[in-house]
């Protein structure tokens, strides 16, 4: 319909502009609303569960994620790494994880010897149980590690020298009193875990 006919073109323009502005306002309001449904950084640091894709962690590699403001290490252990765990039992404070691990209960399906649900995937809080420093990875073995000729791989705390094996178990005669804690976690699938939950779908 043209403006020659008996129609108020000014009014038509006003209606179109109003509808457009209303649509833009609706989208602008929806974006922050949808964003608010995702856990905030504050919620994550307060303990909101964190979902992690572990499918892309190659054997022998480690991924670090943050949960409750702390680093959580996820290591895809190789067969050699898993086999090394049995070689150091006599050098460890708590080889079978019999001591309480602080605020966390072990997750369902937890194997105390590998300190994991699945042998190849290790999940621990990367904070030394002595004074709260973050240990460094020392995956190289033997003299190449810079620790000693018998080293089979693990972690070294740079602050006071505590050492941990590839299950996060602390060596004897070190300042750290207990093993690195295993946080609550559950497998959502073969390639995804949820840290901060011990029950699937909770």
In short:
The protein is of the alpha+beta class. The chain has helices at residues 9-37, 41-46, 79-84, and strands at 50-53, 62-67, 70-76, 121-125, 136-138, 154-156, 163-164, 185-187, 192-195.
Q: Can you lay out the helices and strands and say which pair or pack?
A:
Layout: H1 9-37, H2 41-46, E1 50-53, E2 62-67, E3 70-76, H3 79-84, E4 121-125, E5 136-138, E6 154-156, E7 163-164, E8 185-187, E9 192-195
Antiparallel strand pairs: 1-9, 2-3, 3-4, 5-6, 6-7, 8-9
Describe the structure.
By secondary structure, the chain is α+β, with helices and mostly antiparallel strands. The protein has three helices and nine strands; from the N terminus they run ααβββαββββββ. The strands form three sheets. Strands 1-9-8 form a three-stranded antiparallel β-sheet, with no helix packed on it.
Quickly list its features.
9 strands; 3 helices; single chain; alpha+beta; globular; three-stranded antiparallel sheet; 20% helix; 2 domains; Rieske Iron-sulfur Protein; 202 residues
Strand order of the largest sheet: 1-9-8
Structural shape: globular
Q: What is the number of domains?
A: 2
Order of helices and strands: HHEEEHEEEEEE
- For CATH, the homologous superfamily of the largest domain is named as Rieske [2Fe-2S] iron-sulphur domain
Q: Taking all residues together, what is the mean pLDDT?
A: 83
CATH topology of the largest domain: Rieske Iron-sulfur Protein
Q: How helix-rich are the residues, as a percent range?
A: 10-25%
Just give the CATH class of the largest domain.
Answer: Mainly Beta
